[in-house]
Specification:
With about 200 residues, the protein is of the alpha+beta class. The strands form 2 sheets. It has a 3-stranded antiparallel beta sheet with strand order 1-2-5, with no helix packed on it. Strand 3 and strand 4 form a beta hairpin. The chain is globular, with a radius of gyration of 18 Å. It is built from 4 helices and 6 strands.
């Protein structure tokens, strides 16, 4: 993404459009959904604000600070970091370096897979415990991806459980889920730029 117009080449005439417009648009979609999902998880615990509000705050700050000025990728990333919820802090740091390195400066399009998923009943009040492993295939070993995980109930409705910051080829996860949750699905709303299985 950061190569910009340097991607224009007679050898790959569509590269600039594919990277700048197609991948770039998808990455904005990923950022919006990552912030929304984090807000949704916080809202379910606290009963606060509209889930799109963190992304809207980013857009307002960008407009206020950079109206009529050039906006660099790094400046945009810094504004996003100001709104970064705790659930998206990688290695306990309020930083988007993981997204910048793996997604903006990288070319990753992983395949995601849930493996070794175990659903363990707790009790009627406490629901079930779900644990397993998320595998990122066909991706760099150091790729970090915020993956939304949903539980599927006996009535086939989905419940957002949370995000997993998948780090590398395999990442373990654990969630407490409502009673009746039978299985999980990764990113059912297709918010992460991935290849199909």
């Amino acid at each position: 993404m950061t190569l910009g117009q340097r991607l224009i080449s007679s050898h790959f005439p569509g590269a600039y459009e594919a990277i700048s417009y197609e991948r770039g648009t998808w990455l904005f979609h990923m950022l919006r959904c990552m912030l929304r999902d984090s807000e949704a998880a916080a809202r379910s615990r606290k009963g606060v604000s509209h889930p799109e509000e963190p992304f809207f705050r980013v857009l307002r700050k960008v407009r206020e600070r950079y109206a009529g000025k050039n906006l660099t990728t790094q400046a945009l990333v810094h504004v996003i970091e100001e709104e970064l919820p705790r659930s998206l802090w990688f290695e306990n740091r309020r930083s988007m370096d993981w997204f910048l390195d793996g997604w903006i400066n990288g070319t990753a399009m992983p395949r995601l897979e849930a493996r070794d998923v175990r659903v363990t009943p707790r009790d009627k009040e406490r629901g079930v415990s779900i644990a397993g492993v998320i595998a990122q295939k066909d991706a760099p070993d150091d790729l970090v991806t915020a993956i939304p995980v949903y539980g599927v109930t006996a009535t086939n409705s989905t419940v957002f459980l949370g995000q997993v910051l998948a780090d590398g080829p395999e990442t373990s996860f654990h969630f407490n889920a409502p009673a009746g949750t039978r299985r999980i699905v990764l990113d059912p709303r297709q918010t992460v730029l991935t290849t199909l299985k």
